[in-house]
Each structure stands twice: as structure tokens, then as C-alpha cells.
Amino acid sequence: MKQKNILGLTFSFLWSTSAIAMKIGILSVEPLVLAVIRFLLAGVIMILISNWLLKEKIPKGIAKGI
């Protein structure tokens, strides 16, 4: 139960800070560049977390881009 609470709080914190970061970021770069950076960063984080949670390695074909 405690782990679910921590995950929920982490999710809500990240969700709320992303709106603030977008408002600040939109002043310094173009929206498309900001979206690309955001999705690339999210993708890398998701791959690392899933690799850690599933205890499986990333398939070699995906890592090489094949």
C-alpha cells in the first residue's frame, strides 16, 4: 500500500511540474523543439524504468535501431 501511495504522489508531482516546465520552456525555444525533447526524454526514462522493473535487457535489435 505504501508503494502505491509513493507512486501516486510521484506521478502527480511530475504531471504538475510538466505544465510549469512547458510554460517556462515555451519562452526560450519553439514548441516543436520542446515537444521533441520532452518525448525523447520520456522515452529514455520509460526504457530505463521498464528495463529495471522487468529485470530484462533491452532487445539488441531495438538498441541498434534495426
Describe what this molecule looks like in 3D.
Helix content is 80%, strand content 0%. By secondary structure, it is an all-alpha fold. It has one domain. The protein starts with a helix and ends with a helix. The model has no long low-confidence stretch (mean pLDDT 79).
Give a brief outline of the structure.
This protein is mainly α.
Sketch the major β-sheet. Answer: none
Low-confidence stretches: none
Count helical runs.
3
Helical fraction equals over 70%
Measured by DSSP, the beta-strand proportion falls in under 5%
By secondary-structure content and strand pairing, the structural class works out as: mainly alpha
What order do the helices and strands follow? HHH
Describe the global form. Answer: flat
Fold topology:
Layout: H1 2-25, H2 31-54, H3 60-64
